[in-house]
Amino acid sequence: MPNCALYVSLVLAASRLGLIFVNINPAYQSDELKHSLTLVGVKCLVALETFKTQNYPEIIERIDQDIWKRPPNSPVKSKVLPFLETVVFNSENRINGAYNLESFLDLGSNRNYDVPNIQPDEGCNIQFTSGTTGKPKATLLNHFGMVNNINFIMKRLGIHENGNLNTFCCMPPLFHTFGLSIGILGTLITKSTLYFPSAHFEPKAAVDVIIQDKCTFIFGTPTVLVDVIAAFEKLPPEQRNNKVKYAMTGGAPCSPVLIKKFKKTFPGTKLVSVFGMTETSPITFQNYHDDTDEQIMSTVGQIHDHVEAKVVDLNGEMVPFGTPGELLIRGYVNMIGYYNDEEKTKETIDSTKWLKTGDQFMLYENGYGNVVGRTKDMIIRGGENIFPVDIEYFLESHPLITQVQVYGVPDERMGEEVCASVIVKEGSTLTETDIKSYCKGKISHFKVPKYVFIEKGEFPKTGSGKVQKFLLKEIAIKRIAKYNEHY
Q1: Which stretches make up the AMP-binding enzyme C-terminal domain (predicted)?
Q2: Are residues 240 and 273 located together in one domain of the fold?
């Protein structure tokens, strides 16, 4: 389900009833939806009837062609999805084999219920991992981790019980932890007002809400901030007045160049970075609201209270401060596990409860840290270990480049070569050759991309706004192979 008021009601109702709320991406097609429903064993599915180009009764019917062969307002009977008992559509229409929302709510209108005694350590929320490297896994989080994490997030941000009325502009999707935790739980714990500019992220709608509804807090991935800045720049200067005091970015590394652009667009705003993952409820590192600009631009903040972090080498041994290695996390934030996947859970959380993030990270003596890149994204070119984020940050310093993704492609001689996909400013005539020339003499020769592709439109993204590098890599490999066939 996309962002809407009903989503908030469902999250809170499920938690109060001791149910596990399962977040499903509204962009899923039938195979993806079947995988998610089956992996978790969903008993009740609530959805819109249609959204954008999606027709959900039709998508579900592709999973089981007999599922709707029952009268309206009746339980589900499915051989393909035998665990599914109820489907509810937020629609005024009567749909065979399913309830509309009004009819479903009427079922409990005259009944008294005993509210269960919920324990803090019980599972309450399933988030599917973004699926940037394979089929999504079902991450099970508990009440204790999510509620305490948002409490510490808001306190460190500086708007927790500060006596002021705050208005949140929620741009990320609620079906991922960043949007759900900051948007729903953050609003509740700070007694704030929550705005959804649109059901699905639209930069202009977000800017309109930020200005017209005088939002004081905005948050989103770096990609979202890039689009918001671009939308602001299209407005006449006299229409850019806003009340934003706090901003937060996470979900992917945020370059110093982007932070500077943001501060120029929102000069009265304090932007902080956060770092975490679905499996850690979600935030483990965060800047303080009174950190210096240098700390905000060069780190993802300090480790959260009551959370442990360590960085290890390939042998699992801790490395010295300031040395790259894989980040491991331990503490109340850690997930219960991957639902119905004991093998993957054991691969991720070891016997001493350390959770392997898969992120290359540098931890400093003062507790601050910095993301070097995903371990799986590291490029090994002729024996040189190259982290894409270094090249991405450099290329983003070019005034005509707005977004960059760097990754490795196979090469017979070097093992891997550096490849960059670039989005340039609208109307720019920047070429691939210009970009390579810009690199020479400014970064190490082995970091200069051998291949540069200027992309039109947007990068492919997951539902949470993370760029799917593996798709860019697949496209690049095909382009290179096609080029080599002709030359």
Answers
A1: 391-466
A2: yes
